[in-house]
Amino acid sequence: MRKGREEGFTLIELLIVMIILGLLAALVGPRLFSKVGKSKQQAAQAQIELFATALDTFRLDVGRYPTTEEGLAALRVKSSGVERWDGPYLPKEIPNDPWGGPYEYKCPGDNGEYDIISYGLDGVPGGEGENQDIVSWKGLEQKQVTN
């Protein structure tokens, strides 16, 4: 009787496959991770645009935008002394920005009737790349061209 060849992979074959996978991950990984930052910026811009729509609806009902003191919370909960409020104007609670920080709301704003700002990854004004501010008065595409 002939002894059959044992089935399976050798250690060398496994090491070669692991090296190839490691090289692929090293080449593709950085490109994928750079997309994460841009997608967070786009998500922040989309949230700001959603707030803008809700603020405009609030203004149509109440006759004014929420004050800085009332903040974005006025889109969810009726403030005392506000008549003709027909909210809530947002379906869910006010989210933090994609980096976990709060959105800053100011009315009247320095750049329009109101300003909404996300300070990006670093959480402080200014910055470039993923640290740059996402603001209500500029679209994301315009901002990246000017920076």
Describe this structure in words.
It comes from uncultured bacterium Rifle_16ft_4_minimus_4226. The chain crosses the membrane at residues 12-33. One of its GO terms (cellular component) is plasma membrane. This protein has helices at 11-62, 140-146, and strands spanning 104-106, 115-118, 134-135. It is mainly alpha-helical. It has a 3-stranded antiparallel sheet with strand order 1-2-3, with helices on one face.
What integer value in Å does the Rg equal?
Answer: 25 Å
Largest sheet: 3 strands, antiparallel
Encode the helix/strand succession as letters: HEEEH
Poorly predicted regions are 140-147
CATH architecture of one domain: 2-Layer Sandwich
Please state roughly what percent of the residues sit in beta strands, choosing from under 5%, 5-15%, 15-25%, 25-35%, 35-45% or over 45%. Answer: 5-15%
User: What is the CATH fold-level name of one domain?
Assistant: Glycoprotein, Type 4 Pilin
Number of strands: 3
Count of helical regions: 2
Q: Terminal Cα separation, in Å? A: 77 Å
CATH C-level label of one domain: Alpha Beta
- Calculate the mean pLDDT score and round it: 84
Task: Identify the quaternary structure here.
Answer: single chain
Membrane topology: Single-pass membrane protein
Subcellular location: Cell inner membrane
InterPro entries: Bac_GSPG_pilin, N_methyl_site, Pilin-like, T2SS_protein-GspG_C, Type2_sec_GspG
Keywords: Cell inner membrane, Cell membrane, Membrane, Methylation, Transmembrane, Transmembrane helix
Question: Keywords, please?
Answer:
Glycoprotein, Type 4 Pilin, disordered C terminus, 147 residues, 2 helices, mainly alpha, 3-stranded antiparallel sheet
